[in-house]
């Protein structure tokens, strides 16, 4: 009974706090009588059970407030070098470069292997008895037929492995031929072409040399002159030859006088190539360097040499005459003209050629008209004349002359020159 009243009382108190009416609880009767509700209330209020301070309440959090959790700072990532990526890039670059190099090699070698050359000028070469394939390959390379002698040699060995032979004799080839075609030509028995020996004397002109070649049945004279002055073979001296509209022939002076062997009816390209390559062996880098040290071009040295060649055939006199000419060139104020009779013949030839005869060209070669050296060589000088032009004798002379017997007289002044003329029996 006590527990029921106490529970009812607690519900009334809690309901009043929430402003809610308390639920009605029926009062149960016990044996021994019924107690008045008011009396029960007073009794309960005075009892220990009415001490609401002992009623359990929700615990109050008396702990110190904790700060709000801060977001964790992310650690800064350290970016490490990706060496694998760099390695891949380097490898890719190397592969690309290697591919390009191999491609270029294949293209360049392939062009030569297949004979894809615009140069169709035919050569006649002589293959000697007993030459090995490497010797033949080097010979073809030296003559500009192939560019890769080792490749040619190896290919020839493979092609001839089945029993093919290489025959000596004359071989007609050109740079446009493929390696296979050249080897096929080497494997054929060939008849030797007829040859002829031609000697060009010192002081010969291109026109005279062309006529001599035609007379010997080597080639046509006009075709030779045209080819000699127009074809370029990539030789060192060619870049030092001046071009001038006043020159009769650009390469006059560069046919080195000597004895040559030519094939009868050979191509002019082959003939000119042989002559110019021989000239190249004479006009070395040392010659060109010496000319530059003197303050002259190779073309000027060859022009001087052509004058010396026609003035005298004696090496020692050439050097003395060279000393006279250089003295005049170094004192142009007083001696502006060389006044050499050596150019007279060449000027006369120009005048007799109706196609090129005009006064300005004649004057450019005439040392009595032009100042200093003529525009170009007037003949093809030999080595003694070239050497005299490079290493003249030092003397004080400005005049010279020779008598009918080939004796030379030198003078410092014009008065001395007049006296020498009388002594030589030449008159004044």
Q: With helices defined by DSSP (H or I, 4 residues minimum), what is the helix count?
A: 16
In round numbers, the mean pLDDT is 81
Order of helices and strands: HHHEHHEHEHHEHHHHHHHEEH
Number of distinct beta strands: 6
Major sheet description: 2 strands, antiparallel
- When the domains are counted, the total is 4
Proportion of residues in β-strands: 5-15%
* Cα distance spanning the termini: 182 Å
- Low-pLDDT segments: 22-33, 48-60, 103-116
Shape: extended
Helix content: 40-55%
Oligomerization = single chain
Please describe what this structure looks like.
With 428 residues, the chain is mostly helical. It folds into 4 domains: 2-51, no CATH class; 96-192, Endolytic murein transglycosylase (Dna Ligase, domain 1, 2-Layer Sandwich), CATH 3.30.1490.480; 195-282, 2-Layer Sandwich (Dna Ligase, domain 1); 285-423, no CATH class. The chain is built from 16 helices and 6 strands. It has helices spanning 2-17, 37-46, 83-114, 133-142, 149-159, 179-186, 206-215, 221-230, 268-282, 285-294, 298-311, 315-329, 344-352, 359-365, 383-390, 414-423, and strands at residues 123-127, 169-173, 195-199, 259-263, 399-402, 408-411. The protein has a two-stranded antiparallel sheet with strand order 1-2. Strand 5 and strand 6 (408-411) form a beta hairpin. Helix 8 crosses helix 9 and helix 11 packs across helix 12 (315-329). The radius of gyration is 57 Å and the shape is extended. The N and C termini lie far apart (182 Å).
